[in-house]
Design a protein that fits this description.
Helix content is 36%, strand content 26%. The chain is of the alpha+beta class. The chain starts with a helix and ends in a 5-residue tail after the last strand.
Length: 117
């Protein structure tokens, strides 16, 4: 049975394989009580987001996970889309939103995980 860290690594790799840009996996489990991992991904269009979202949904079905919440930060949904899997939260962000919100800086005390190994 896979650990949550292994699942988070696989999701990060899936996002990279789906042409997500600048994929980052952060372990923030020691910094809060509501999630353990952030997967942060830059997407370049709503179509790109939809493709990555479909890949996440397929992964969820195969790996005993469930979506607790999906949320769009902007009305048209192109800037920041959040997929909450409980222990793993996926942030699909436009380059502009990613620069503005700078989650990596905000959560800089989290541990950066190498998911490519």
């Amino acid at each position: 049975m896979k650990t949550m860290e292994e699942k988070a690594k696989e999701i990060a790799k899936l996002m990279e394989d789906g042409k997500g840009e600048n994929v980052v996996l952060l372990d923030i489990s020691k910094l809060n009580s509501w999630t353990d991992y952030f997967v942060i991904v830059t997407v370049n269009s709503s179509t790109h987001w939809q493709g990555l979202y479909k890949q996440v949904k397929d992964y969820i079905k195969q790996n005993d996970l469930e979506i607790h919440l999906t949320n769009k930060k902007s009305p048209d949904g192109d800037d920041w889309n959040l997929i909450d899997l409980g222990s793993i939260v996926i942030h699909l962000m436009s380059e502009q939103a990613r620069t503005f919100y700078d989650l990596e800086k905000l959560w800089h005390t989290g541990n950066l995980i190498d998911f490519k190994a």
